[in-house]
């Protein structure tokens, strides 16, 4: 299949080159919005953006053929990931292509801020000369507080240590080992605010980070602190910044990012403050970073479109495993098992437990996605895939438990689904022999061996002579051929379970005579897709 990708923002030309090298048709059309964008996007399988294009639910809906949204950069706050996930559209970014540039920009901002460089440049260029007014401060031996010890925070740390700064950090997700390796002291946020001479933030904008510094918590700040934000607008409350400076809490502010970009008139006013220096979201704007993110996003998207690799995917992390040859047989097994389990399940079943034993256990995450795909395909009208399966499971209130064991007692690998009905668990287990021989091996304690393919009749009967003859006669009368069969029982003469594979899809009318047979109970008809080539 040939793929088409649309580049919507000002992404470096290496993006087109890489797509073309990979045989992907690529079109560039910048700054589209509204109806123009909805019309244009229809035929494309992928779109590439930076931060200008807002990839809203409406845009995704208009993208009838859309499979991937690629962000040439880190922040994906301009992409409605939830809506993309629901539609099974992959969202990817390039998490490290612009790390170095942004870290360098941050260090540049720290030095420019404390040495009053931008203000002094303006003065001299305007024909002035004032050495007293632009007296600065050294960073040497000062404390730099870092909020967010991720990729950029870590690179800033290493660079500013060479300026002999003492680095402290607040990051609830950072490990002590990581901090030790970097020579950073991990502290709580209040301590960081109260002891830092400079504070730089390197987190996404979230409910937790929004307004991290504002007039409300001004008393927590070390007097005369310098604030730097090269992450996302709004982490410092912008409208409070002039007052924080004028009232002596803050010595100066450096901003590369704003809540609205370009800044609104109101925000523009704030930026006129002589102690606030600014750049127009330039952190990642270097030739090197832009080449890297452009190349990376094109290569990642081409790989994903060809289903070779899913590196950089944000809303389908576990699907990157699907390119691993080892996981492929289990994926199909899991999906088939999900499909059969839901066909055997009573209506409204919503409590499931998935058990993985043996080598397959290490892939449990993606196997759960695959079971859910099989299970939900029967209930959800939209296309369910590995990206959106968990979303639909949650939306439908399915309660899922997952357990793993490194070994199975009976088979090399075993996947079992239990579903709860009237307080009792029904159980179905399956395994794969070789690469594609998928078999159910147990249903509700009955050992059975049944290929997981095609059209299957499954029923319970009393274990006595003549039962199979009745069924085969009812089928033969309708000229329906039996392909294979499997019998299972717990004890001679008690209950038995029988599975009969037939050579054609059966209609309700054809099934009726079988439902009417005496001593044949709980007859169910299951249809499974053929094994993939
Ligand atoms: N100015 C630019 O041009 C530019 C360029 C690249 C990235 N960015 C932005 O910089 C930010 C950081 O990027 P990164 O690549 O380092 O990301 P990252 O994911 O590597 O690091 C983010 C860190 O923030 C931490 N974190 C999350 N919530 C937190 C909280 N409430 N308190 C403290 N720490 C928290 C995470 O644990 C993580 O370590 C992102 O917002 C990104 O969009 C801006
Ligand atoms: O595309 C850009 O220049 C913005 C980059 C940056 O904000 C990011 O999050 O990667």
Write the layout of secondary structure elements.
Layout: E1 4-7, H1 14-21, E2 25-28, H2 34-41, E3 46-49, H3 57-62, E4 68-71, H4 81-86, E5 90-93, H5 99-114, H6 117-125, E6 143-147, H7 151-161, E7 166-170, H8 176-182, E8 185-186, H9 189-195, E9 198-201, E10 225-229, H10 241-246, E11 250-255, H11 265-270, E12 276-278, H12 287-305, H13 328-344, E13 351-358, H14 364-376, H15 389-395, E14 399-405, E15 413-421, E16 424-433, E17 437-443, E18 446-451, E19 454-462, H16 467-477, E20 482-489, E21 495-502, H17 508-515, E22 520-528
Parallel strand pairs: 1-2, 1-3, 3-4, 4-5, 6-7, 6-9, 7-8, 9-10, 10-11, 11-12, 13-14
Antiparallel strand pairs: 13-15, 15-16, 16-17, 17-18, 19-21, 19-22, 20-21
This protein binds nicotinamide-adenine-dinucleotide (NAD) and (2R)-2-hydroxypentanedioic acid.
């Amino acid at each position: 299949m040939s793929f088409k990708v649309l580049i919507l923002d000002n992404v470096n030309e290496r993006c087109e080159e890489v797509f073309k090298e990979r045989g992907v048709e690529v079109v560039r059309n910048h700054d589209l919005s509204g109806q123009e964008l909805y019309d244009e996007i229809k035929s494309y399988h992928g779109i590439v953006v930076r931060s200008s294009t807002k990839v809203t639910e409406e845009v995704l809906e208009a993208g009838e053929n859309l499979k991937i949204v690629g962000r040439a950069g880190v922040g994906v706050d301009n992409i409605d990931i939830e809506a993309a996930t629901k539609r099974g559209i992959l969202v990817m970014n390039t998490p490290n292509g612009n790390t170095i540039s942004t870290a360098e920009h941050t260090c540049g901002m720290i030095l420019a801020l404390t040495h009053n460089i931008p203000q002094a440049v303006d003065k001299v260029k305007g024909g002035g000369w004032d050495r007293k007014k632009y007296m600065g401060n050294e960073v040497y031996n000062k404390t730099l507080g870092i909020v967010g010890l991720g990729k950029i925070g870590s690179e800033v740390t290493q660079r500013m240590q060479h300026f002999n700064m003492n680095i402290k950090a607040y990051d609830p997700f950072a490990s002590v080992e990581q901090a030790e390796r970097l020579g950073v002291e991990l502290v709580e946020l209040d301590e960081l605010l109260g002891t830092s001479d400079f504070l730089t933030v390197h987190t996404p904008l979230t409910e937790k980070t929004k307004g991290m510094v504002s007039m409300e918590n001004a008393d927590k700040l070390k007097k005369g602190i310098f604030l730097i934000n090269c992450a996302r607008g709004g982490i410092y409350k912008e409208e409070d910044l002039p007052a924080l400076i004028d009232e002596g809490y803050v010595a100066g502010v450096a901003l590369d990012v704003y809540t609205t970009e370009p800044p609104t008139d109101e925000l523009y006013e704030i930026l006129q403050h002589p102690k606030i220096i600014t750049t127009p979201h330039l952190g990642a704007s270097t030739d090197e970073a832009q080449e890297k993110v452009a190349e990376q996003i094109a290569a990642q998207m081409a790989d994903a479109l060809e289903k070779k690799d899913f590196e950089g995917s944000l809303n389908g992390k576990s699907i990157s495993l699907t390119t691993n040859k080892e996981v492929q047989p289990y994926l199909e097994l899991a999906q088939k098992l999900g499909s059969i389990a839901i066909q055997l399940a009573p209506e409204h079943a919503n409590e499931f437990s998935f058990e993985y034993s043996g080598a397959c256990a290490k892939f449990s995450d993606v196997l759960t996605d695959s079971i859910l795909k099989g299970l939900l395909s029967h209930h959800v009208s939209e296309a369910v895939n590995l990206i959106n399966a968990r979303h639909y499971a949650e939306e439908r209130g399915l309660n899922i438990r997952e357990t793993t064991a490194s070994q199975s007692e009976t088979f090399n690998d075993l996947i079992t689904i239990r579903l709860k009905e009237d307080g009792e668990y029904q159980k179905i287990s399956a395994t794969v022999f070789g690469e594609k021989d998928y078999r159910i091996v147990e249903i509700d304690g009955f050992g059975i061996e049944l290929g997981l393919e095609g059209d299957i009749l499954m029923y319970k009967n009393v274990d006595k002579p003549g039962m199979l003859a009745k069924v085969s006669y009812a089928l033969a009368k309708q000229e329906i051929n039996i392909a294979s069969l499997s019998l299972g029982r717990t004890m001679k003469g008690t209950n038995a379970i029988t599975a009969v594979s037939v050579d054609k899809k059966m209609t309700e009318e054809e099934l009726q005579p079988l439902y009417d047979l005496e001593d044949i109970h709980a007859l169910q008809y299951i249809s499974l897709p053929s094994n993939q080539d």
